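Review box. Two proteins, two foldings.
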Amino acid sequence: MGVTLEKIAEKVSGELIGDGQIVIEDVAKIEEAQKGTITFLANPKYLKYLETSGASAVIIGKDIEHTGEKPVIKADDPYFAFLQVVLMFHTEKIQIEPGIHKTAVVGRNVKLGKNTAIGANVFIGDNCTIGDNTIIMPGVVIEEDVIIGRDCLLRPLVSLRNGVRIGNRVVLHNGVVIGSDGFGFAFHQGAYHKIPQIGTVVIEDDVEIGANSTIDRATMGETRIKKGTKIDNLVQVAHNCIIGEHTVIAAQAGLSGSTKIGNYVRIGGQAGFAGHLSIGNNTAVMAQSGVSKSFPDNVTIFGYPAALSREEFRRQGALRKLPDLFKQFTDLKKQVEELKKNQKKSD
């Protein structure tokens, strides 16, 4: 069912320029859009597509000048506005009905909230609590004494170890493991001896964790992921780490034990962190950085070992000049040797 451009503008609180009665039937990328679709423009490098795009309308930033004929909706944040429009046309439907599937195994003293859905071949251990409207998809394993809040979504093959606590509106994607043992061993008399991992993991509200990521339980105490944080696929968070609010971590990053990450931190893919260090609030860690020491608030770090980005960029700039400098040095060395030879001949 189509929606008029006027209604879309109202939905995103945007300024409509052009025919508000145009009917929009779907969303599309700006370079691939066709008639009947709406797209967005947030990056100036795509300005060339504004008029040539086949889209019937475009959501743009309020700072973008528009003098063409194509209808637009001006928004403070065009990317977020477009996200709202996507949800108008593509709300995900989870095909699992409330209730307990006949193949699920549910332990003793389990408390299930209203409209909870338990899929096929799910295992739920004793003394667990699961909140209202939470969806547990097929193949999930939940060990004993786990608490899960309301409106959560656990996708297939998620594993929650004993004693884990999950907040409200948490999304765990396929293969996520929460509460696995931390990597703790004591070396004694020529062998490694396992240190019991007797702590837990706490995942606060509105956290999303990508496929096949692992969050280890604390040796003692807790590993904690604070509210609003988003973790990509294939991320490792070791025992006793604390990750602050609204932090984002890209794929293949790894945090060693007892690392503390602040609020609103941005961590690029394949970044690695040594243990027992702290990263301040609103700090950016660029991709593939090797972080071996603590950093304060509001900085950008990069490199291996990681340093303040402005310092590392200067260092890398100097390294790129080394081949030319080496050639110049070799040429100067030859000139000096030639001068010495000539000096000896003149003597």
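Next protein.
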Amino acid sequence: MTENMKYDFNDLTVKLGGSNMPLCNFCGTCIGICPTGALTSDYERGKPVFDESKCIKCGLCYRHCQGIGVDFAALDSSFKGGENYDKYFKSYNKCYLAHSSNDPVRMKGSSGGSVTTLLVYMLEKKLVDGVIIPRPKPDQQWLFRPEIVTDVKTVKSSAQSKYCLIPTNEILNSLKDKKGKYAIVALPCQIHSIRKLQNEGNKNAKKLEYLLALICGHDMEYGATMFGMNKLKIRKEDVVDIKYRDHGDWPGGLSFYLKNGEKKGINFFNYHYLNAVYLPNRCRLCPDYYGNYSDISFGDSWLERLLGRGMNEKGIPKGWSSIIAKTDKGLALLKAAEKGKAIHLEEIGTDEIHESFPFNISYKLNGIFIRLKFARKKPEYIGLEKPEKLDRYIYHFIYNIILVMGGSKAFRFILMLLPLNFNLFLIKNFKKLMGYKPNARDKVLKYNEKSNVDK
């Protein structure tokens, strides 16, 4: 694909797989770089909206769509990580266990409050002029969009991951009229497009001084959130806030805060396994789990040895973060925050990073080649390294079939009619049938499973 080739949006949608665009995961890049505003966001449907009358057929959307393809060889050659190397997350500096030194921030976060703490630290120390995080739409507070935030209070109130498609990279358009440096919290796929734009000298992308990645096994279509609303008989117009890791005891499930002051929710285990039903097709075909091209990557930590360390008043463990400092800049930020007593860090080896995520490593970094083999529409990956031997081929083959069937309209309709914990029942018994051995994450979660499953 040459830089002087031109395409219209019809070419883009055909390459993405037709009108339903199964290779689009609403990263927002096309919207953020469109020079004429021909592309805008439909947040509820999780799709870009095209106004053909504004299109000048420049081809920018096509060339920078990570749904169509990613040149990993080019990203590897341009990315300057640390001197250490891991076969799963490539170049890096150091790995840590971490949590916020601010206990309320730690308790409110998804896993230790580390991302929130670093964003606050950067603002307070004026290392950046703003941070880019998901925020509720003012006129539709059940939906999220990226927003440039400059005050600490708003950052703290926005803690926790948002398990729904958010077009984070559409913020590039808003940076056009801004000066200064910014930090952005993004998913690995979104960072692929940002790094490509930075390498090309895109002025807006280069304003993103810090790229913080959320370790990502998958995202969920907005339909998963709507499933929760429908099950709980909630009208979306009555929702004033949504928290995805809040309901019940740790690690917390989906909560809806309503205009009348009520709070309703679905516990962690029943909501979490909706990822097998509302998984975006493009997420099913993504090979970047650890956010390999970020400055710092963040995720949960599920180490058994952490049980009993840092318990709240109910005897439930507080969250811990797994952190990978990828670049020198990222490492320097972490060490400065530690010195300023904003964050608690404990250096660990890569083995304990991987211990928290053995299934996702196998599923996303190994099973991806099985799913790509059988996918009708798939991205073009350049320089994607294939392991010498694919592990658990039969397991991944069958699981891929289940994901395809689980995402069908028929199964979603049936699931809506069945008891809330039916999907959990299916997943647990599938694991037993396939000889799935519990890992550290399963053992830690089982610690509090009964309080997180609705009868």
